[in-house]
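Example S7 (structure tokens).
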């Protein structure tokens, strides 16, 4: 090509569009279809229970039902599992370790070989016998705890007070249940009467068919265990939760990248059209000298092919380098850990064919127009753009602006949604607060008073650390809780249970999180020590249950609040009636984008599970106190670990799936919009520069005859304004047509007017900035110098 800058811009436009499209489509295709390295992962399913309260969880299946599952026609293989946190006391302060106990056939089931050493086999965990004391590390735990030391295989580690021999380390992509270590499951213990399971369907069976077959097995289990009467069963694929967490954001990201690809292809078209048309006189001269049409069009086609090939290779190189980096920064709430996303060949071929065909078509059309020129035009130097060329520029620029405007409108809607989550009223103060999760070991502190005293001691000793303002206890903290229970209200005329969120906390909980007391009082220390059944509720509870009336003095009870020793300890008559003694402000317990659920607070000593959270408020960053808090807890119990990682309450908000999704969509769409603006600016600049170059003789004559320089600028601006106006009008129509769909994908309010105004202003500013330089050159050019050149 005669203008290297045009070639460079065309190659960059093509490479950016191809790299963005290939990277995003490869990532999403990998997430949706096969995100895991497991053998026949598309046939691996998990059994889940769904209560009438819409709570979904992975259940424990009783041994008899597991045997029946193994005999089902639709089930090929079953793996039993159990999970609990253990303290790694191999060295130093106890480290929290998420231990997943797997039946001996597990690693054969998954079909993933070890990265180092070996995995355990069925012979390491025979049925009805104690398994071998061996352990397999996840890649992430191996890196974090042992700094990737390859000599770890064969060493002895201590988990939960027991010694285990390290058999091997799994590859980075093996992240089943995001566990730290994998240990053979002990099925010889008669007290362990149920386990969680993962299944593989036989070839040819669908999830619906398998669900129908196992339903009688589940119904038999319901008859034998009445506590499961309110539960339904379903099978789900192992990547279903990731697709649900991304939701409609998948479609939004796909739409945004397709708009970017469209803007990129249009930009390449504009650049090639301008370059080819600017060589009208060259092609006309060659035709006049006897060149055939085939020879004339051969050169622009070869040049377009070179540009397409170079842009494709550069785009592929960009994707190859940036995709692993981008994958590492994906939010773990929305994507599986350890992702290794390859470039998708099908998407690459589609994108390359689309870009190449566009480039070749645009290069071919103007060449055909000038292949048979009028010699009289050549002799008169009438080489300005004809009506066909002007119409092509008009359509391309208008379409590019319309697509860019739709993309910018989408971006502003995504940013508005993200900002709304940033400014949501939490109902509590997350600043300078961190929560330390503390698992209670099996068969320790198994008496109610003993466990309550232990938890109280943890809280009080941590509160003595310099820099700590207050510390408190709670089973779960905001902004999300799935601890929903059926609640009954004494004297309720509706005679039906209400679904309420329940938390078990101490008196300091409200002071530590700055949750305001609106009515009544909180518990006294003696009431908590006695495990008195006294309730505090939030405003949502009062609005929903009592229609905004007075709640103080009314009584509620939780009929399902029953202890299951030794893990879950409930005081005698914990299901009895509890008078309401106070009302506090609403604190988020249902995520950031859903209304707060009715909440009941009870003393932590009434109902204690094998888990507690210690909330610490400090003068400065509470994470700076983490080492001191860990040491203080270890002083009380040398085997007690704190779950990792410890995060601040502010970071806990950022970890919410809806927050992570909004941030991801806003970041990606912003990046795409910036690229689209740059590409549109280059396209407008190229068209204006070409138009002025082809009409510089006309401008020189007009200036010589007395025209003002401002008239020259106005002449160009009038034509440009018409293209911009039509493009913006098309963008407004497109944005308004899609705004409800975009609002549904994003989850925003659906207001489109602010986004449309912002898009218009950005594109108008861009268009006039892009054409300012060539217009100034044309207006300031010396007419006599131009005429001598012509």
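Recovered sequence:
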């Amino acid at each position: 090509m005669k203008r290297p800058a045009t070639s460079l811009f065309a190659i960059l436009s093509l490479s950016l569009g191809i790299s963005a499209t290939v990277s995003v489509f490869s990532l999403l295709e990998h997430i949706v279809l096969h995100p895991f390295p497991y053998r026949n992962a598309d046939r691996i399913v998990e059994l889940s229970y769904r209560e009438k309260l819409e709570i979904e969880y992975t259940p424990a299946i009783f041994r008899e039902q597991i045997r029946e599952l193994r005999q089902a026609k639709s089930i090929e293989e079953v793996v039993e599992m159990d999970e609990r946190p253990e303290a790694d006391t191999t060295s130093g302060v106890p480290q929290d370790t998420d231990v997943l106990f797997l039946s001996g056939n597990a690693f054969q089931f998954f079909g993933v070989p070890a990265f180092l050493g070996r995995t355990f086999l069925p012979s390491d965990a025979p049925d009805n016998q104690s398994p071998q004391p061996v352990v397999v590390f996840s890649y992430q735990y191996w890196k974090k705890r042992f700094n990737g030391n390859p000599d770890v295989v064969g060493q002895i580690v201590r988990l939960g007070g027991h010694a285990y021999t390290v058999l091997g380390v799994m590859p980075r992509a093996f992240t089943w249940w995001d566990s730290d270590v994998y240990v053979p499951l002990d099925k010889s213990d008669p007290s362990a009467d149920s386990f969680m399971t993962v299944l593989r369907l036989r070839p040819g069976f669908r999830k619906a068919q398998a669900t129908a077959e196992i339903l009688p097995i589940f119904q038999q289990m319901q008859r034998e265990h009445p506590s499961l009467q309110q539960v339904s069963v379903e099978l789900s694929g192992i990547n279903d939760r990731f697709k649900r967490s991304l939701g409609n954001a998948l479609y939004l990201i796909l739409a945004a990248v397709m708009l970017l690809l469209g803007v990129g292809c249009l930009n390449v078209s504009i650049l090639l059209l301008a370059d080819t048309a600017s060589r009208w006189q060259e092609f006309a001269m060659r035709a006049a000298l006897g060149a055939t049409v085939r020879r004339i069009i051969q050169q622009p086609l070869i040049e377009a092919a070179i540009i397409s090939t170079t842009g494709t290779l550069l785009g592929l190189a960009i994707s190859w380098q940036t995709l692993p980096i981008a994958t590492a920064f994906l939010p773990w709430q929305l994507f599986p850990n350890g992702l290794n996303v390859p470039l998708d060949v099908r998407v690459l071929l589609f994108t390359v064919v689309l870009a190449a065909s566009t480039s070749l078509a645009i290069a071919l059309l103007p060449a055909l127009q000038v292949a048979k020129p009028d010699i009289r035009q050549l002799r008169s130097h009438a080489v300005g753009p004809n009506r066909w060329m002007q119409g092509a520029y008009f359509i391309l620029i208008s379409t590019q602006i319309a697509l860019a405007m739709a993309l910018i409108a989408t971006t502003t809607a995504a940013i508005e949604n993200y900002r709304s989550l940033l400014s949501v009223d939490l109902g509590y103060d997350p600043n300078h607060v961190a929560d330390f999760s503390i698992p209670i070991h099996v068969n320790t502190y198994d008496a109610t008073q003993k466990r309550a005293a232990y938890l109280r001691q943890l809280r009080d000793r941590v509160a003595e650390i310099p820099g700590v303002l207050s510390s408190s206890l709670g089973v779960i903290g905001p902004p999300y809780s799935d601890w929903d229970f059926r609640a009954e209200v004494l004297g309720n005329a509706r005679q039906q249970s209400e679904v309420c969120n329940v938390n078990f906390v101490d008196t300091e909980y409200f002071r530590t999180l700055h949750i305001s007391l609106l009515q009544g009082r909180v518990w006294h220390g003696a009431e908590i020590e006695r495990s008195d059944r006294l309730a505090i509720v939030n405003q949502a509870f009062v609005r929903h249950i009592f229609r905004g009336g007075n709640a103080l003095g009314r009584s509620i009870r939780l009929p399902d609040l029953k202890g299951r020793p030794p893990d879950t300890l409930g005081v005698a008559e914990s299901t009895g009636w509890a008078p309401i003694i106070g009302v506090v402000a609403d604190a988020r317990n249902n995520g950031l984008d859903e209304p707060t659920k009715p909440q009941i607070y009870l003393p932590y000593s009434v109902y204690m599970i094998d888990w507690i959270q210690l909330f610490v408020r400090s003068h400065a960053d509470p994470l700076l106190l983490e080492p001191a808090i860990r040491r203080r807890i270890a002083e009380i119990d040398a085997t007690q670990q704190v779950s990792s990682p410890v995060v601040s309450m502010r970071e806990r908000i950022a970890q919410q799936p809806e927050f992570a999704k909004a941030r991801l969509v806003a970041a990606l769409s912003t990046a795409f919009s910036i690229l689209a603006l740059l590409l549109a600016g280059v396209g407008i600049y190229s068209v204006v520069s070409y138009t002025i170059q082809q009409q510089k003789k006309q401008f020189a004559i007009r200036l010589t005859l007395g025209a003002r320089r401002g008239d020259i600028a106005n002449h160009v601006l009038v034509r440009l304004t018409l293209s911009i106006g039509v493009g913006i009008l098309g963008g407004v129509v497109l944005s308004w047509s899609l705004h409800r769909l975009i609002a549904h994908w994003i989850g925003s309010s659906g207001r489109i007017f602010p986004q449309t105004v912002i898009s218009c202003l950005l594109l108008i500013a861009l268009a006039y900035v892009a054409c300012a330089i060539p217009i100034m050159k044309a207006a300031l050019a010396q007419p006599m110098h131009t005429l001598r050149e012509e």
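Notes on this example. The radius of gyration is 34 Å.
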